[in-house]
YCII-related domain-containing protein
Amino acid sequence: MPSSTPRRPDIPRNLKPYFLCLLKKGPRWNITEGNEDLMPRYLAFLRRETEARRILFAGPITDGGELVAMVILEAPNAEEANAVANANPSVESGHFITELHPCLLPTLDTFKVEY
């Protein structure tokens, strides 16, 4: 049955729920001793989660402030999105802390990042 409410032409038709994860400097941000393998583990995590399509894309924030990166996650609920975000080796080590926000974006179903 068609909707009786006309659709506004300026609203995207293909919105889908995702999660925006903001990564901020954590309490161990500047501590490198004992964490020499952190960057390779972090990059392996990003690749694994991107290939599994739990992380759709991620990138650094380069203005030198407290925010250091952003990630778009696809998950059925906030608990699962939070689990992925907190499995990040840099979060586990205390170098990053996460801030998770539900968001609506045009569908990213065909969007693919290649590593």
